[in-house]
Design goal:
The protein contains 10 helices and 19 strands. With 395 residues, the chain is α/β, with parallel strands linked by helices. The strands form 4 sheets. Strands 15-14-13-16-17-19-18 form a 7-stranded mixed β-sheet, sandwiched between helices. It has a 5-stranded mixed β-sheet with strand order 1-3-4-5-2. Strands 6-7-8-9-10 form a 5-stranded mixed β-sheet. Strand 16, helix 9 and strand 17 form a beta-alpha-beta unit. The longest helix has 18 residues. The termini are far apart. Bound molecules: S-adenosyl-L-homocysteine. The site of S-adenosyl-L-homocysteine has 17 residues, from helix 6. S-adenosyl-L-homocysteine binds next to helix 6.
Length: 395
C-alpha cells in the first residue's frame, strides 16, 4: 500500500520541529487523504510540503504518533534498531542480570516507540499496544523481540484487549504471538514474584516502583509497616527483607490479596510477620488505631485518568494522605505516590501539603521520588513523566 501523506495547517509544525512526537487532529489540514485508515503509517509534511516525520495515524485527539522525524521506512529493520537501542540502555542500567530479570524494555515515547510498552519477565516479554498502529505491527515487533540477540526472550504474550481505543473495533485478542507459557515467576533484586500477565493489571506487575521499593526496604528495619493499595505485594516483600517487625498489606481486591499472599509465601514461607486485609483503604485508615504503624505506603490507583477528574482527584489525594498523617506513629515515615499523568508534580505536592496542614503534625520531605530509569522520559515529551512520590518524616 502506498504510504499516504498528511499535510499540516500553516505554522502547525512548530512543536514537531522541537521533536514533540504528537500531531493533534486540529493541526491537520483538511481533507485527509481518501481511504486513510486507522493505524496506517503516514508521512507528515508542512503546509508547503517539507517533510517533518513519519508515524502512526489514529482517529482521536492525537492524530499521529511520530516514529521518526527522518523520512525512513517503518519495517522490521526499523523496529529491530529501536529495540536494540532500548536493550542497550537496559544493559547499561544493569537491569538484565541473573538476580533481576524483570524490567521494562520499551516505555513508549521514552524509547521513541509511541504507543508501545514491552515488559520483560524472565523468558517472557509482555507486549502492550496503546495505538492501532502498534496493534497492526504487533507480529513484526514480537518476532524482532524473540530474535533480539542478548535478550533471551523465548515467549511473547500480547496483552492489549483493554489498552486500545475501543472505538477502533480492533477486537484485539490477548494471546501468545511467539512461544507459549513457560514460567510466571520473575526475579527483581533477588526477590521472586509471581506475575499474572493473563489477568493482572498493566502487564501483571508494577515495575515502575522497583527503586522505591528498594528505598522502602532501607527504612523498614524495626518498623511496623502498612502497605496500602498493595496489589501484588511488592512493597510488602521488600519490607520483610528489610527486617520490618510486622507488615500489613491492604487492597480492596480479593484477587490482589491472593497475589500478595502468594508472593510473600514465595520469598518468606511460613513468616508470621505478614498479614493481609481485603478492605477499602479509606475504611481501613478510619478504623485503624493511632500509632499502629511507623512506616506507611500509599500507592493508590490513578485518581485522575483524565483532566476532567483533576479536582476530585486532588481532593482524594488530600483526604487519603491526611488520614495517614493523622495516625502514623511519631517518627514515622510515609511513602506517598500518585501515578496520575493528569496530576502534575506541583499539584500533587500541594495536595500532600494541604493534608499535612490538616493533620497539624510536623512534617518534612526526605525524598522526592519518580519512575525508574527503565521508564525513561523523552526530554521533548515531558508528558511521559507520570510517577510522583514523596517520602515524609512525620513527628
Ligand atoms: N502498590 C502496588 C500497585 C498499586 S495499584 C505495587 O507496587 O505493585 C492500585 C491498587 O489499589 C490495586 O490493586 C487496586 O485493587 C487497589 N485499590 C483501588 N481502590 C482501592 C480502595 N478504595 N481501597 C483499597 N485498595 C484499592
Amino acid at each position: 500500500m502506498e504510504q499516504k501523506t498528511l499535510r499540516l495547517k500553516r505554522g502547525k509544525e512548530e512543536s514537531l520541529d522541537r521533536f514533540h512526537p504528537w500531531v493533534f487532529s486540529g493541526a491537520l489540514a483538511e481533507p485527509l487523504p481518501a481511504g486513510l485508515e486507522e493505524g496506517e503509517t503516514v508521512s507528515v509534511v508542512t503546509h508547503d510540503g517539507r517533510h517533518v516525520g513519519v508515524g502512526h495515524f489514529q482517529i482521536g485527539s492525537i492524530a499521529v504518533r511520530i516514529l521518526d522525524f527522518a523520512d525512513v521506512k517503518i519495517d522490521g529493520e526499523f523496529f529491530r534498531n529501536r529495540l536494540m537501542q532500548a536493550l542497550r540502555l537496559r544493559q547499561a542500567l544493569g537491569l538484565a542480570r541473573p538476580d533481576n530479570d524483570a524490567y521494562r524494555l520499551v516505555h513508549g515515547e521514552g524509547d521513541f516507540l509511541p504507543g508501545l510498552v514491552v515488559d520483560i519477565y524472565g523468558p517472557t516479554a509482555v507486549l502492550q499496544a496503546h495505538s492501532p498502529g502498534m496493534h497492526f505491527a504487533r507480529r513484526i515487533i514480537a518476532d524482532e523481540i524473540a530474535a533480539l540477540p542478548g535478550l533471551g526472550v523465548r515467549n511473547v504474550y500480547y496483552k492489549s484487549e483493554t489498552t486500545l481505543p475501543y472505538k477502533a473495533h480492533l477486537d484485539a485478542r490477548n494471546d501468545y504471538l511467539v512461544g507459549a507459557f513457560e514460567t510466571s515467576v520473575a526475579t527483581e533484586n533477588s526477590l521472586r514474584f509471581n506475575i499474572d500477565w493473563l489477568k493482572g493489571q498493566k502487564t501483571g506487575f508494577f515495575l515502575d516502583q522497583r527503586d522505591n521499593r528498594s528505598l522502602l526496604q532501607h527504612y523498614s528495619r524495626g518498623r511496623r509497616v502498612l502497605n496500602m493499595f498493595c496489589y501484588t505485594g511488592g512493597f510488602s516483600v521488600y519490607a520483610l527483607r528489610g527486617d520490618a517487625t510486622l507488615v500489613h498489606s491492604v487492597d480492596s481486591s480479593e484477587k490482589a490479596i491472593t497475589l500478595t499472599d502468594a508472593n510473600v509465601k514465595l520469598n518468606y514461607p511460613g513468616t508470621d510477620r505478614h498479614k493481609s486485609f481485603a478492605e477499602d483503604a479509606f475504611k481501613f485508615l478510619d478504623n485503624m488505631e493511632r500509632d499502629a504503624y511507623d512506616l506507611v505506603v500509599l500507592d493508590p490507583p490513578a485518581f485522575a485518568k483524565h483532566r476532567s477528574a483533576l479536582r476530585n482527584a486532588l481532593r482524594g489525594y488530600q483526604r487519603l494522605n491526611a488520614k495517614a498523617m493523622e495516625k502514623i506513629a511519631p517518627g514515622g515515615i510515609l511513602f506517598t505516590f500518585s501515578c496520575s499523568q493528569a496530576v502534575s508534580r506541583e499539584q500533587f505536592r500541594l495536595a500532600v501539603f494541604s493534608a499535612a496542614a490538616q493533620s497539624r503534625r510536623r512534617i518534612r520531605i526526605l525524598h522526592q521520588l519518580t519512575q525508574p530509569a527503565d521508564h525513561p522520559v523523552n526530554i521533548y515529551h515531558p508528558e511521559g513523566e507520570y510517577l510522583k512520590g514523596l517520602v515524609l518524616y512525620v513527628e
